[in-house]
Design brief:
It is built from eleven helices and no strands. Helix 5 packs across helix 7 and helix 9 packs antiparallel against helix 11. Helix content is 80%, strand content 0%. It folds into two domains: 36 residues; 209 residues, MetI-like (MetI-like fold, Orthogonal Bundle). The longest helix has 34 residues. The chain is mainly α and 262 residues long.
């Protein structure tokens, strides 16, 4: 049974926590050499910059929309390929379906390494190997997509427990039959929900890939930034905002529909 803290002990704990947070912030600011005076003195230029961004160049909206569709296509393609790869590897690594513990450990460890490396780094390595283009962007998204989905799918599969797996093994079912008929029906709702959530991440990453030369709206944004075309930047940002907002609404409805259908 947990003993409640006395008022004095509670105040001391709150004070210690506040002092600790303040110390961490002060240390971080000192390490970063933040100069608040210089920062606020430069805010006087913000008004002029904001006025430039308020003028939207409507002539680039059509081109920005086309590039945004290209980024969406790249994100969806990476998700579709990553979905099937991740699903197979997740069944080989989940605790209740793995045929080999060493194999499961290798898959989980590899997925953790992939997740730890940003998509931009994967893309840089791939571009250095195969050159620029949509293919490089696709594979640059594929690695982090698989790293994310493998962990999510393993969690979904392991949530089903071992009861149905053991029962099907007892009647002589094969591993494929156990996966398809015993585990997948119960886990599919969660698997689809995780996949729908990953779409948003892939689209955001596909925009970032424009910084290293991959086509899409990210590359268009970088060109506009390099030329200080404020009206074009605003138009591109508006297209991105509308697309991402619509995508978020769609993904949330899909997830609610998946959960409601369970």
């Amino acid at each position: 049974m947990r003993v409640p803290l006395s008022p004095v002990s509670h105040k001391l704990r709150v004070t210690a926590t506040a002092l600790g947070v303040a110390a961490v912030f002060t240390g971080s600011a000192f390490f970063l050499k933040l100069d608040a005076v210089k920062f606020f003195s430069r805010l006087q230029n913000a008004g002029g910059v904001l006025r430039r961004f308020m003028t939207i160049d409507l002539s680039v909206v059509g081109a920005a929309t086309a590039e945004m569709i290209g980024s969406l296509a790249m994100a969806v393609a990476a998700l579709c390929i990553g979905f099937f790869i991740s699903l197979v590897l997740a069944f080989l690594a989940a605790g209740n379906t793995a045929p080999s513990k060493p194999l499961a450990a290798v898959i989980k460890g590899s997925a953790a390494v992939v997740r730890a490396v940003p998509a931009l780094v994967w893309l840089l390595m791939i571009v250095a190997s195969v050159g620029f283009g949509n293919a490089g962007g696709l594979f640059g998204l594929l690695f982090p997509t698989c790293g994310y989905l493998i962990k999510a799918f393993i969690t979904s599969i392991e949530d089903q427990g071992t009861g149905s797996v053991e029962a099907m093994r007892a009647v002589g079912a094969s591993r494929i039959e156990i996966a398809i008929k015993g585990v997948l029906p119960g886990a599919m709702g969660q698997i689809l929900a995780w996949s729908a959530m990953r779409v948003e991440f892939n689209v955001a990453e596909s925009v970032n890939l424009g910084m290293v030369g991959v086509s899409g709206i990210g590359a268009m944004l970088m060109r506009a930034l390099g030329k200080y075309q404020y009206g074009a930047i605003s138009a591109i940002a508006l297209v991105m905002l509308i697309t991402m907002s619509a995508l978020e609404i769609l993904v949330n409805r899909l997830r609610r529909g998946i959960r409601g259908g369970k």
